[in-house]
Amino acid sequence: MALPSITANEAGISTYNRLWTNAQKDLDAQLQTEREQFLQPEKDHVKAFRMLAASYINYLQIFHRLEEAHSHLIHQQKRAAIRRVLDGVIGRILEMKKEMVGLENSEFHYTDNVIEDLKLLPVQIPIPEYFVKENLEGLQQREKTLHEILLNAGLETEKPVEAMRFEEAIKMIQVAERARQGRRRALFMKQIHLEEKRKRHTKLQEQTGPDPDDAATCIQKVWRGYIQRKKTEKMREEEMIFLGMSNPPHLRALRSTPHMHTRQEDALQAEVQERHEEEFIKDKLRETEGLDIRETLQDQIRQCFMECRHIIGRFPDYPAKEAGGSMAIFSQKTPEQVLLQKQLEKSMISVSFSPLFSLFWITAVWQNRDEGRDFLQDHDPELIKAEKREEVEEEIRVQVMVSLAHRTIDSLYRELAEEGVLIKAKPVNLSDYVGEYSYLGTTLRQVNIEPMPSLADIRQLIALYGILPLGSQTAHEKAPLVKALLLAGPTGVGKRMLVHAICTETGANLFNLSPSNIGGKYPGKNGLQMMLHMVLKVAKQLQPSVVWIGDTEKTFYKAVPKAEEQMNPKRLEKILPKFLKALKAEDRVLLVGTTSRPFDAKIKPFCKVYQKIILIPRPDYASRFVLWKHAITQHGGEITKLLSISCLAKLSDGFTQGCIVQVVRAVLSELRLLQMARKPLCTAEFLTPLASQDPVYNEEEETFKVMLRAVLTGSLSSSPAMI
């Protein structure tokens, strides 16, 4: 009897069901172990850390298997069940990490001995696929919208056309040449045809006389010219009347009447002239002062809303039409007006219709007016300008209130993108941050040498504090909350790349609040408050979101350099703590700062804002070896016996990842790639470009280490690097 065949799909389902089952069993066993081990407090720090590290590693193993099962299973109910367990495991990993940091007073842990005891290999934290997949369609639409906004605003250009193949290029040239020859031949044939037609026309005209069509065309030209001249005269006359340099037709007819109509004519002429001048003055005011009026009104409205929010804890409702609409916001009286109001109320005079107000206006305007030079007793343009200014302010006030009261998330999103505050994240994965695991951490500590963290450790911290909380709503709400993260390290170690990797792995928006980017934008205190309010509103509504501050040490400068005073780099210093305070556990918004000179900042407020500080070092030998190999192959190079990666890794000691990538790009030009087949790469080709790069010296790296150690231990004043 033949056994039924098993399809590949059924085998795969069975495999991932078994993977899920085994992971669940390991999770139950781990929870039981924790109940037994953590009942009694452990006083020995070394033993306690080994227990925590073992649990942390076990959770990572379980996390890895659960994520793999979740990403491959198709059954939606099974995926939902695994998803709940995954969120719980992520939260538990973050809790374990917090306990380990508190125990060792360091973000970096060296667990190579624990991994060896468990007979395991180092496990990197996996990034669950559902972080992006569950909202893939919305993310693609948002990316398309952002691309269109940046394209229309001129902040982005279309991608260059990719180079075509050689055969396609030849075919395109052939088509273009044949088309050119066809156009030339068509033009030549057209000239021959026109010449023959001209000769036939000349011969026919000699025989029969003038052509009737030509005569009709000549008459049409004359008539159309006459009509156009009449229209032009009429338009010129209307323009002269509008400018007050000529009288309307009915007034010109009155000039032929006796003197009894002279006074009426003069009054009508003055009225028309004044009306035209009023319109001209109003248009001029709208053109010259409209922008300033708009900005002033916007500042007043924002200040009013901000003060109300500070007092009552939320933004006030827009005033109803019955309550005066937006005019209610500007109805504040001066102390003199309030005093006058009270006096009128006490005197039992009707405030609304009191003749005193017109009397005050007459006294203020006309009593002490010098009219000695006003011989014509004509209208005063300045009074008209003051009156029309109020009308212009009223028109602009309505426009401003409508634009502010009905702002949608889409409009805020568009404005932030057009201003360059909301930017497009580069598609970079965390796995692209190449670096090797350190296997000697525990060994170095046993001989009292503090090891530098490896790039694999950096990847783990970025995943723990940036990607996992932003990707999982449950983990963000219930696990230890990290609102702000600082990446500190020399130039070229990949700080900005890690920021973009966080956004790519979670599908997060990226807001750029770097001092160099927001300098000159949204000026003034009210403008700054409004910008942060817009960023916070969009970031919360379209979460997850990352708010990035590059060169963040400038925000906390000890002394602002004269060259940067105009940029006002410290404008965010006092408002950032309030910004972070507004972020709640349910808001998947992360503030990420990057700095290559943290020692230029005032350390106390600097560390108060950034809850977690991650020092990113220059790569060690193992990481440089992997990086050289990866960069060369990624840029089209081939590694042969003539190219010693080990030699390049040793010679590049002290150089950052950015330096290595720049060297590879400089060597592997298009011409060099074409020569690869007959001229393989050799080690010497990379030495000259490498020598032109600036390394990170031991003194600079030691300064970073001292600063970080002082921050973690709280001894801010004991380190000379802090001065």
From TrEMBL:
Matching InterPro entries: ATPase_AAA_core, IQ_motif_EF-hand-BS, N-DRC_Component, P-loop_NTPase
CDD domains: IQCD (cd23767), RecA-like_IQCA1 (cd19506)
Superkingdom assignment: Eukaryota
Domain ATPase AAA-type core: residue ranges: 485-600
MF annotations from Gene Ontology: ATP binding; ATP hydrolysis activity
Keywords, comma-separated and alphabetical: ATP-binding, Nucleotide-binding
Name listed for the protein in its UniProt record: IQ motif containing with AAA domain 1
Organism of this sequence: Gallus gallus
Gene name tied to this protein: IQCA1
